[in-house]
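quick one before i forget lol
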Amino acid sequence: MKEQTRKIFQHMKKNGSITALEAIQAYGVTRLSARIWELRHDYGYTIRTKLVRVKTRAGEATVAKYILDTRSADRRNGE
C-alpha cells in the first residue's frame, strides 16, 4: 500500500472518517479522492461518501466526508 494511502486508511480506522481538509492538514494529502479510490478498488474496502455542510470564511460549503465501514476493515485484516 502506498504511504499516503496507508496514512489515510490508518486515520479512518482510528477516527472512522476523513475529509479533504483533514487529509491536507494532517498528512499533506491533496488528492484524497484518489486515495479513497485505491482503498475501494485496489484493496476492497467499503467506504461511504457523505456530503456535509461546513462553515467557511465565506459562509458555508458542502464537502465529502469519507466513512470507513469497519466491518470491511476487520474482514480484510483477518485475512
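fyi The longest strand covers residues 47-56.
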